[in-house]
Amino acid sequence: MFLYKDTTIKSAVHPVKEFQAVILAGRPRDWGGLDTLTDDTDAKRTSKLPKAALPVAGKPMIHYQLQWLEAARVQDILVLCPPNSRQEIAMQVDKYEEFSDLQIKVQVLQVPHGEGTADALRSAKDHIKLDFIVMTCDVITDLPPHHLIDLHRIHGPTVTTLLYDFQKLESAAERPCKKDEYAQYIGIEGAKGRLVYAKAQEDVGESLRMRAAMLRKFPRVRVHTSLRDAHVYIFKRWVLDVIAGNKSISSVRKDLLRYLVQCQYSKRAMKAEHIDELLAANPDPLQEAQLLSTTNSAGIEQFQRAESQSDDSHSPPNAATEPLKKATTSNGQQVVCAAVICRDSFCARANTVWAFGEINRQLAKNVPEKNPSGSEMRAKQTQFGPDSMIGEYSQIGERCSVKKTIIGKHCTIGKNVKIVNSVIMDYVVIEDQVKLDGCIISQHAKVLEKAQLKDCEVGPK
Fold first, then answer.
1. pTM tops 0.70, yes or no
2. What does pLDDT average to over the chain?
3. CATH classification at residue 36
4. Is residue 56 one of the residues assigned to a domain?
5. H or E, element range at 305
6. Does residue 309 lie in a domain region?
7. What pLDDT was estimated at residue 48?
8. Listed residues 291, 325, 360: the one ending a domain
9. 316: which DSSP letter?
10. Residue-wise pLDDT tens digits, 43-88
11. Which domain holds residue 266?
């Protein structure tokens, strides 16, 4: 499923600087929070272990995004993080670059603590010169990057977003009963795969309301309740100008994406932020070439009209050119939000403690050389399940049982310990006769003798 550095196929292809990438590796809630595991709170403003450095199946979480972007042949990557996390994240980035097959350039930039995702992009605007990929540090997927990037190359949408079905995440532990704050109503126009509706379920009352203008343009919309935003986007460069010009846009998912979706059917929304002017100033070369193609007489007529007059809204509609004119600017461009649903590959976000544990357990199944030698375990009369893994320099005592569990590096496990469905991070000490079921133990934590914990999160020491 997931490639490891010793099995990555090296390529002789020289990558072209087509996209830049931004990894959001911060604390704010909009970026996905794991406060109990990182000890990163607004009050302390310090982080013993940033979220991006949390171990997932033996690797720092941010290494998964870097690996995905490396497979996409992206050379220029920005990592945005709060000031207190910069040193640790930069160290993890340096470790990755040592083994990278490509000459990638990764720059770690600090942004003010507590900013939203769109606010962070606004602060890094001067560093982004090309169309750019945005992803959070908690998204983990083995979807081949070209499935997303090729669609953006061919069709040239304003934004291409990745969605996944959260119900497909295999569960070894019962899902929490509390309300899912990331639940959304996702509306997709079936014929062309356009994202035409996106709203948090907590913002919707007893009835789901849709604008008449949207339904006139997109009469057939399939609404999904199990899809989640993976926080992987590909944006046109001019979208940064929209973010810079409107400081009320704080979140990519809640503000920016919702606004771009509305611009697909509302000319008023486009003019409010001068998006029509931005589209005219940033023409799509492929679309202009199609309009001027000798095989597209309707396109030539439209291009000539756009050159002769900027607004042809009062002219009578023409059956041949009406599909091209619909919801477009004077030069034929329009705002398009494309959606890609990850169906056959693994995709999930470690944005909750429960999801973090489940992703660890699922990825551990694909880690090579994850178990200690069988002879060593038999000598100690210890059971170590094939669906578990243990990090380097960790020790397990006699007569222990470890099943569906990930144990980090430099851990010490006492005698007669039973652990099931749990994640044990680095430098953890578990004393004798402890029982853990469905727990996540943060680094440097210590579980005292004869403790019995079920479905608990133990924070850093």
1. yes
2. 80
3. 3.90.550.10
4. yes
5. helix 297-308
6. no
7. 62
8. 360
9. P
10. 444 446 788 989 998 889 999 999 999 999 998 999 998 888 889 8
11. 15-278+335-360
